[in-house]
Amino acid sequence: MKTDDVRRYLLGLQQNIIGALEAEDGHPFLTDGWVRAPEERLQGDGFSRLVEEGAVFERGGCNFSHVRGPTLPPSATQHRPELAGAPFEAMGVSLVMHPRNPWVPTVHMNVRMFAALPEGKEPVVWFGGGMDLTPYYGFEEDAQHFHRACRDALAPFGDDKYPRFKRWCDEYFFLKHRNEPRGVGGVFFDDFAELGFDDSFAMMRAVGDAFVPAYLPIVQRRRALPYSERERDFQAYRRGRYVEFNLVFDRGTLFGLQSGGRTESILMSMPPVVKWRYNWQPEAGTPEAVLYSDFLRPRDWAA
Amino acid sequence: MKTDDVRRYLLGLQQNIIGALEAEDGHPFLTDGWVRAPEERLQGDGFSRLVEEGAVFERGGCNFSHVRGPTLPPSATQHRPELAGAPFEAMGVSLVMHPRNPWVPTVHMNVRMFAALPEGKEPVVWFGGGMDLTPYYGFEEDAQHFHRACRDALAPFGDDKYPRFKRWCDEYFFLKHRNEPRGVGGVFFDDFAELGFDDSFAMMRAVGDAFVPAYLPIVQRRRALPYSERERDFQAYRRGRYVEFNLVFDRGTLFGLQSGGRTESILMSMPPVVKWRYNWQPEAGTPEAVLYSDFLRPRDWAA
């Protein structure tokens, strides 16, 4: 079964990523495995790998999950009515890291496969994924490095892929109620099968494999920069936007919480400490104002 | 126009509540008024009254808003298909207070009126409202006092009202993904018109007027109790549940954010400082465990 290869890849990817992040942090990440009870409607298993109070990462996780269910959720068949109600299989690796140092950006990465298994017919498989970067204090070279890594990973699959998926990312990670992007973006794709199984799967792997080289050099450049209460406070304030996005808009989070997913794994994306403050605006000319003026707007970072 | 009386009542209620809370806190609350630009689809105005870093209230707000729109949102006419698409008017007072002292509970109160204005027909008006209490460390006498105040306010409108609205509150303020109630509850009602305009409006007023006597004595009893980092930390952790409820489940919050409401006023319900922690459980026998075992379950508090 081809989807066994996907599972094998995803489990290996999770190990590689955690290995790299653990080595950077110096603290071993926790492991928490789970299996759905046989009487539950959804079947499946997963491993959460997570860190709290690390040297570099204040909180974060990288989860693998693999579920099977008797009927596709309506949200998954909006564009494929012929598959409505078919059994399905879904698996993915999902990561969010909230660094302690406010000069190091928060990052999110996800790669996933969805398969509809209509009775007596061939499985219909599609892929999704992407990664995006959320700085508190922006560095142009970091945003450029991250976007170029995404662009280079996608290049073998067609010149249209990076610009399409970059725009999709800007559109998806947008806080409508704030009229504000979540960060400097990256790439995002969903419902992807247009290259056929083998090449679509290869493209998903290319994105997954690009994560460590896209993010780790940024961590290494910024992790020792000195900071004070001022930067920590701004970080805590900006993390509120991350909470708002994930709980109000993010389809994966909402689907997980509503479908009875494992709450503590899903909410690994929540930051460790968050502050809300009424109608706060950065003062003109401060480094905080530069985040809004220069980084929280769509830019052609890979150019 | 009868709805002018509702507006007058709500503005007076906001003033009375803020007067009582300001006197308790000692810090004047800020005032922020807003009016929708004439070219916007929704028309209306509002006043936000809010506090940050008060002596008692670390963050909180009491908002009045009044909007008119050309077509009812679908969420409002699920049970009234004959009104779909009619012009409407909605107004309300909504309050959340997050005290600094972890021995003082967080509280929420809301009273609201909705009117559909189908062309050439009589307006159709309904009311909603309620209040609920969210302790960090529970006191039975506080939960009893709060519930008895709700019960007594509703008694003139029929013996069924308190038990019905108490159950509705337990059902509404429930975090499905945590299998946990938000707090010790209170009362909640919506789509209410069964007593006719005058008495339904009177019932809404009774709930609004009951708020200060229901909550203020609890603040006064607990505000000077000493606390340490341990209690503050638990408070910050539990406030995460408040965020999760309001951003994932609360209809008023989601409707407001999705319909282009004033974000900073709507998100006054967010706590000032919040912490998330993986898979945290209280140790048996601690005061934190007592919150879960004795308070976070439906109980007949008014008995």
Describe it.
- The structure is a homodimer of 303-residue chains.
- Chain A is an alpha+beta fold.
- Chain A has helices at residues 2-25, 140-154, 161-172, 196-222, 229-249, 251-258, 263-266, 287-295; strands spanning 30-35, 43-52, 57-69, 88-99, 106-116, 124-134, 174-175, 180-181, 185-192, 273-275.
- In chain A, strands 1-2-3-4-5-6-9 form a 7-stranded antiparallel sheet. A two-stranded antiparallel sheet of chain A has the order 7-8.
- In chain A, helix 2 packs antiparallel against helix 4.
- The longest helix of chain A has 27 residues, at 196-222.
- The first copy, chain A, is globular.
- The model of chain A has no long low-confidence stretch (mean pLDDT 94).
- Chain A binds chain B through residues 30, 32, 50, 52, 59, 61, 176-178, 236, 240, 243-244, 247-248, 254, 257-258, 260, 263-264, 266-268, 270-279, and chain B through 30, 32, 50, 52, 59, 61, 176-178, 236, 240, 243-244, 247-248, 254, 257-258, 260-261, 263-264, 266-268, 270-279.
- Strand 10 (273-275) of chain A pairs antiparallel with strand 10 (273-275) of chain B, so a sheet runs across the interface.
